[in-house]
Design goal:
heterodimer; A: 261 residues; mainly alpha; MetI-like fold; 75% helix; B: 346 residues; alpha+beta; Rossmann fold; OB fold (Dihydrolipoamide Acetyltransferase, E2P); 2 domains; six-stranded mixed β-sheet; 9 helices; 21 strands
Chain lengths: 261, 346
């Protein structure tokens, strides 16, 4: 590569841009009350929130895989009228303010919502303010990441491998499970990790749709926010923990996003 | 089979009949529709009219709405770049078809292993396709296609992905393995040598249409298209014969000893054409005037491209090439005997 000196103004603006990201992270690490770390991390409240976060985000990822992979397959392979519109609608949660998502979920699945009334009167199921509601909210916000990643993987794979499998007598389901899925495994993995990370950090839709009950719907981000008022040091430590998780995700995906250079 | 279909710019219109036990090579230039024809037989590309029939069983016939899906056709397909499943070992690749058709894991593994032995890859069962050489991959592809015991074997340019050195050895092995398979074998190639070594019969196609059918000897001795003539390396003309001469559409008349009457093809081997700088005297019946415009080495001889009323290629020795300064181009005279022109009905 050609060696090039950056013009001074570009260098200054770029440095400011980088500092904007680095300084807060350094602040978090430096100012965190390391002495109380262990105590903060092992308090019942934290452990409950952590456990809930893991269960809910992993469940949301599982639901996203089960529903999102078929959706991605349909988007990538089947041409049907309204596909573009439908795809836009299912991608919307990526850009929608999560609070709006939470309100939309309430109006649909709330006790007096569009579908929620039916669920409540017929099956006696209420979603809002339950752990299932947390999974709902997280899935709503996170699944689009998985769908888009897997769809891109399906579009870029060499479909002639599927032809080869068919000439060997494989039925469509066998082709899908034994050839298509293994071949898009990297996209599947990346999509699942992105989806999980997004679910883990979910705040707006969760608090709107599921509320903030310790042990039931209070996930890590909610706990962090609440602790900020009562026990700021504790919230710093939890923030640090979430930062580490995010960092681990990024490192895990570095080949895709940061280039292998 | 008889297949008609349109795919983008390509219009395929072919009628092919292959007998049990025959090895047929489909020969044609790039874009002739050879691969598409194979894919229609496999059911991977739908036909718009016509039919595909195997052993009396109708596989596809748009007129009656019949379509047997690919996975239910008894077909083995060796793809051009083999398409071995990269996530599966050699053994699992070969066992794939057996498993897909219902064999149990142990049974499929045992039979796959037999095939791997047969193609001489005893120790590579656990390897991934990426660890194999091109020639080994080709053998795995063949074993994978044959393991489920299909009635038809389709091979799409089976040697194209190999380098020249490996190709010779693999061609020999391929011929042997093809000989040991008793069903219908149809091979697509644009390499005449491959076609001639492996096949009993050639079908030449161009632009989606059938051009010529025959044994390799028939096709190479009596080419019926510019494409085959170029492959074989002879001069081919078409014209109207009239007892001892052939009149070409451009008006040029060719003296040809065997010519009788009607539309004919005339073939002149480049070796039979002599090149001179001055107008030759003497007996040759055909004397043409033209301009040399290119030279190609052809074995230990040189081939001179000559443009004139009818383009022609002449083969000369390197000594003649130097002496006549043919590489410089310029005006030349060329001559050939009427007895060196082979004529057959068009």
């Amino acid at each position: 590569m050609r060696r090039e000196r950056a013009p001074i103004w570009i260098a200054i603006l770029a440095a400011s841009g980088a500092a904007f990201f680095v300084v807060p992270l350094v602040g978090l690490v430096v100012k965190a009350p390391w002495g109380d770390a262990l105590q903060s991390l092992t308090s019942t409240e934290t452990l409950e929130a952590l456990k809930l976060s893991l269960i809910a985000s992993l469940s949301a990822t599982a639901v996203s895989l089960v529903l999102g992979v078929p959706l991605a397959w349909i988007y990538a392979r089947i041409d049907f009228p309204g596909r573009t519109v439908l795809r836009a609608l299912t991608t919307l949660p990526m850009v929608l303010p999560p609070v709006v998502g939470g309100i939309a979920l309430l109006l649909a699945f709330g006790r007096r919502g569009l579908v929620g009334t039916l669920l409540d009167t017929t099956f006696g199921i209420t979603l809002p303010f339950t752990t299932a509601g947390v999974v709902f909210a997280e899935t709503f916000v996170a699944m689009p990441f998985l769908v888009l990643t897997v769809e891109a993987g399906l579009r870029s794979m060499d479909r002639r491998y599927e032809d080869a499998a068919r000439t060997l007598g494989a039925r469509r389901w066998t082709v899908f499970t034994r050839v298509t899925l293994p071949l898009i495994a990297p996209s599947l993995f990346a999509g699942a990790v992105l989806c999980w990370a997004r679910a883990l950090g979910e705040f707006g839709a969760t608090i709107t749709f599921a509320g903030n009950f310790p042990g039931v719907t209070q996930t890590m981000p909610l706990a962090v926010y609440l602790l900020l008022e009562t026990n700021p040091e504790g919230s710093f430590i939890l923030s640090l923990l979430l930062l580490l998780v995010s960092l681990a995700v990024l490192v895990g995906l570095r080949h895709r996003w940061l280039g292998s250079a | 089979m008889e297949a008609r279909t349109a795919l983008g710019a390509l219009r395929l219109d072919m009628k092919v009949q292959i007998e049990e036990g025959e090895v047929v090579a489909l020969l044609g230039p790039n874009g002739a529709g050879k691969t598409t024809l194979l894919r229609t037989i496999a059911g991977l590309v739908p036909i718009q009219s016509g039919h595909v029939e195997l052993d009396g069983e109708m596989l596809e016939e748009p007129a009656t709405g019949r379509y047997v899906p690919t996975e239910q056709r008894s077909i083995g397909f060796v793809f051009q770049d083999y398409l071995l499943f990269p996530h599966l070992s050699v053994l699992d690749n070969v066992a794939f078809g057996l498993r897909a058709r219902g064999a149990g894991r142990a049974e499929a593994g045992r039979r796959a292993m037999e095939w791997i032995d047969r193609v001489g890859l005893e120790n590579r069962g656990g390897s991934k396709p990426a660890e194999l050489s091109g020639g080994e991959r080709q053998r795995v592809a063949l074993a994978r296609a044959l393991a489920p015991d299909p009635r038809v074997l389709l091979l799409d340019e089976p040697l194209a992905a190999l380098d020249a050195t490996t190709r010779v050895a693999v061609r020999r092995d391929l011929k042997m393995h093809l000989a040991s398979f008793s069903g219908v074998r149809l091979l697509v190639t644009h390499d005449p040598l491959e076609a001639a070594t492996v096949a009993d019969r050639l079908i030449v196609m161009e632009e989606g249409k059938h051009v010529q059918t025959g044994t390799p000897v028939e096709v190479t001795e009596h080419p019926r298209s510019r494409y085959v003539a170029d492959l074989v390396g002879v001069n081919l003309y078409r014209g109207h014969a009239d007892h001892g001469s052939v009149r070409m559409p451009g008006g040029q008349v060719l003296a040809a000893a065997g010519a009788e009457a009607g539309e004919v093809f005339a073939v002149i081997h480049p070796r039979a054409v002599s090149v001179h700088r001055a107008k030759p005297e003497g007996s040759p019946r055909n004397v043409w005037h033209g301009r040399a415009h290119g030279v190609e080495l052809y074995g230990d001889r040189a081939r001179v491209m000559i443009e004139g009323e009818a383009p022609i290629v002449a083969e000369v020795t390197p000594a003649a090439l130097a002496e006549l300064k043919l590489a410089d181009g310029g005006d030349v005279w060329l001559s050939f005997k009427a007895t060196d022109v082979s004529v057959y009905p068009a």
